[in-house]
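Supplementary Note 2. Why include the ligand at all?

Several targets in our set were suspected to adopt different conformations when bound, so apo predictions alone were not considered sufficient. For every target with a known small-molecule partner we therefore ran a joint prediction. The input for PRP is given below.
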Amino acid sequence: MHTILNHPLVDHRMAYMRDVATAPKLFRELVSEVTTFLAFEALRDVNTREVEVQTPVAKTVGRKVSDEIVLVPILRAGMGMLDAMLDVLPYAKVGVLGMQRNEETAEPVPYYSKVPPAKGDEIALVIDPMFATGGSAVDAVSQLKKLGYRRIKFLCLVSAPEGMENFEKHHPDVPVFTAALDKRLNSHFYIVPGLGDAGDRIFGTL
Ligand code: PRP
Ligand code: URA
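The joint prediction is reproduced in C-alpha cell form.
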C-alpha cells in the first residue's frame, strides 16, 4: 500500500527541489519542509491517550501521542530528513542503517547498523529521500523485521513505479508514503524525472 501526498504546497516545493539550479542550502530546507508533511500524513493513525489540560480559561481534555516512535534514516541521504522528523517527534528514538547502492547493479550493500532493540509495539519510520529500484528499502525493512519490529512505515520524497512494485511484493504489510511517484527508472537506475542524486544535493558533493 502506498500513499502519494498530492498537495499543492508539496508539489510547489518539489518543483524547486527538482530544479538542477537549486543549491544545497535551499535543497536541504525543501527536504525538511516536505518531510514535515510526510510525517503528519504517515502518523494519522498513531495512538494517543487522553490528558487533562488547564487552559488559561478552563480545564479540558486533550490527547497526547502514546506510541513509541523509532526513526531510522538510511545513510547517507536519509540524514537530510532526520532533523525535520525530530522537530515533529522530539521524543522519538533514532537508529541508523548504512546502505550504499552498487553503482553498476544498483544492489544495496549494507555497511552499518545501529538500531535500538525492538519491543515489538513501537512504530519504526524508515526515512530515505529516494526510492528507485526499492532495493535499499526492501533490505532496510527486512533488517528491521529481523530485529523484531512489527509496525514499520517507509517515508520518501521521490519514488519510481518499478521500486514500488518490487517493495510491495516483498513487504505488502509496510505502507510507503511518498511526496511524488515519478515515471520510471533510466538505464543507470536513476529516477526519471527525479531530482538526481539526493545525497549529493543534500551534502553538496556533486
Ligand atoms: C540512494 C538513496 C537510497 C537509494 C535508493 O542512496 O538515498 O538509499 O539510493 O535506490 P534504490 O531504491 O535503487 O535502492 P545511495 O546508495 O546513492 O547512497 P547515499 O545516500 O550515500 O547517496
Ligand atoms: N538515488 C538517488 O539519489 N537518486 C536516484 O534517482 C536514484 C537513487
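The mean pLDDT is 97. The pocket of PRP (ligand 1) is lined by residues 74, 76-77, 99-101, 106, 108, 128-137, 163, 189, 197-199 (CB under 6 Å). Comparable summaries for the other entries are listed in the accompanying table.
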